[in-house]
## 1
Amino acid sequence: MTSFPPRADPEWVSWGIQSLFVQGAMRGLFTLLFGASMLLMLRRAEDGHVAPIDAWARRSIALMGFGVLQFAVLIWPGEILWNYGVSGLFLLAFRTARPRTLLLGAALLIGGLSLNAAHWTGQEVQQLREGGAAARAVALGQAITPDQRAALAAERANLAAVHPSEQVVEREISRRTHVGSLLRWSAGYWTEQNLTFTGWIDVAESVAFMLVGMALFRAGILTGEAPAATYRVMVLVGYGGGLAWRGFVVWLNVRSNLDMGAPGIDPLAWTLSQAMFEPARLLVTLGHVGLVLMLFRSGALGAAPTLQALGRMALTVYCLQSAIGSFLFYAVGLVGQLSLPQLWLVAVGIWIVTALFCRWWFGRYAMGPAEQVLRWIAYGERPRGRPVTRAVSAS
């Protein structure tokens, strides 16, 4: 965000909408479906000479390889494929579990994640408060202790992250528009996010949502077989609970100018906001699932051929969007140049381009290029890039 204090301008309004409906929820939706996909793959056993579990394990390891490709070649260190590959291997332990067991496992993981978030947030807020007190002591010419100096450094780092100076912004832009520093940044960021304690926290988060997806699939909810009332409850409870809590968090961030160390706000509010992040994200995700399935069941979306094409080429689309994003932001130099509403317009443009590509591709072939590679690795046979017998409708 570049405009402070918060106001009802396009940037802050788009940030609010994103925080309520999008942040983490789209990833949550994709993660639910990934969990369901394992059950589909194991059930299908497409190749008689390959054990489904072996195929899934190889597929998961291949996804980890695609994750390395994402940060090393496509320069997207925030990728999720490595995480999904690791998480997919853990899912094998739950492949025969009942929905109740799956939901219990998810609840335990989400509960643990919430406690972890509460612990670290409480410590961070306390340190930032101590840093603010130390800053006031220094301004009065008072001596401070080593612990206060550490807290002061943390408080200044927090302010610099929330309100970076022009010099810091220019340095980061330069870092991400020159090949050498860009590659070092991508590798460093990816390593920190995937090969440290943070990476295992993210794996636990993904496994929890995948278990929910498996439970919803086994219960017939994701396949549209549940009673209509089930989807209405998902929408009402999901949006009602999730958006109410997220609305509180938006209010908290607006009141504090996005500064967790700002005075005048009870530290417990920050602790609760982070502790409830995963439950609220899950609720909003379930609200999205319920709404989409209600629309499908009512026929409002028709056959949704474009959504079908995007779903069947999810990995190819993911890689293509990473490549387009890297070209626009690093090669063309748009990084740091666009406001949040402008970034949304870029995102919509990328969605349109990839959707058109998928429709074009499925008019000629039965499987996306990345999906062909994944199937080759999983089943040990190179799939033929055969044309489709019936193209996806262009209507």
## 2
Amino acid sequence: MTEIPPQDLNFDVVVIGGSLSGSSTALQILRRKPKCRLCILEKSTDFGRRVGESTVEVSAYFLGKHLNLSDHLNRKHLIKQGLRFHFGNHRSQRLADCGEVGPHYNVRMPSYQVDRTILDAELLQQCQDSGATLFRPCTVREIELNEGGDQVVHCELPGAESLTLRARWIVDASGRSTLIGRKLGLIHPNTEHPISSIWARFTGIPNWEELGRKPGNIQWGSRVHGLRDTGTNHLMGDGYWIWLIPLSNGETSIGAVYDERLISFPKGVSLADRLLDLIQRHPGGNELMAEAKMCEGDLHFRRKISYFSEKYAGNGWVTVGDAAAFLDPFYSPGMDWIAFTSNAASRLVLAGLKESFIDQRIDRHNENFSASYERWFRAIYKDKYFYLGDLQIMDIAFRTDLGMYYLGVVRPLMKARSKNWNRPPFSHAKAKRAVWFLARRNARFVKIANRRRASGRFGQLNHQTYRPFDSYGFNWTLKMRLAYLALRSFGLEIKEAFKRSPKGSSPTPKSPQNEQGYELQKTSENR
């Protein structure tokens, strides 16, 4: 903790939360305005383990190039080799039997698998080196918001010592505590997306490259010329998926995310058994977990993890990262969200310190992030868990999602460098067509998956089907590949239209029941 006399408890900016979202926002403010009087309040004595360990292209660029952390990332963390998906069905008995979608070679634009304990500590230290005042451990007790005036934060230090801080701006980086959002009644669960998650860290998870050299796995191991081990490997099931993320200390982060409309557990089942049950439902689960040991005290559960906010800023406050909203961990978008919210917040705060009238800028900020969340959800995630477990559908969906990400998000940022960071994905008016196309495609895939599930054809190609692909680039081939995927999607719909449910096929599965016992609606069309 930094000790300062009472007369110095007036600041320009108070940042609540010192981990990635808070520190990255503070660091951007301090680099643009070195003389800014900025204070960070961090509740923990030391950073513990946390999820959000996997970057993708945008967040890797943000951390490496924009925050200038490339040297730290390359020395302290692992180079990530893309996303890889493994599917199975009743014919699959082990990992080598599973269908696979993933890069054939090492990816063109690698990102990072990060240890958040190390990364967050590095960023917070850089903030202190840049002049930030740090109170740690510090518990925020009350926030007084005064639109256009001074904001007040009442907090408590060890030994019950109380502090009252005043600042023109507060940055809420409190994570899922969402202090300002809950105080103002702005946070709402995304009821259209009832997903929950269980996760832990494990030791004893085998190296994927070594698995490929075992007797019986040689063909499976040699069909991929790049590295499986340092990518994010996903075990895909009907209504759920499992992530496996290697960490630099030798542990592996393993977590399950599931849609409560498709997956339920009997009462009394422990969290550990729920996680292991989902892992072992997959044909590769037992093989991967044969010698695994869960790290002590590192099992976590969050129910209905998707939520949003009515507003993301006011005249004197702004939210970043998970304190603003959370959508879904699939495709690892969390750090991208941190990149966009923290950059836009830092620019808004600096403008607010300089200008008296920024209401239009605040309105634009709220419109941008509200549109981004809503469109991002409609385009990519709505009802996606209904077809996650079918390789043929997910192969097209993933390639299209990734290609559109490169076309509409990654490429503009690379070309404009730092100019587009304050406009989050899908917030532009011209993104409406892409959102419409992706949302319509998702809805059609859900219908196909439901038909297949009802007729017993769901996941028929999951056994031993290998669908490799090469990394996307920014040249003319990107649009050509997307056009080809649109044709594949159309072809799948045409073929599916002529499929008839075989006699004696299994009926449409009954909707799972919630804890109160009533049936949940099964598809979006009935909700």
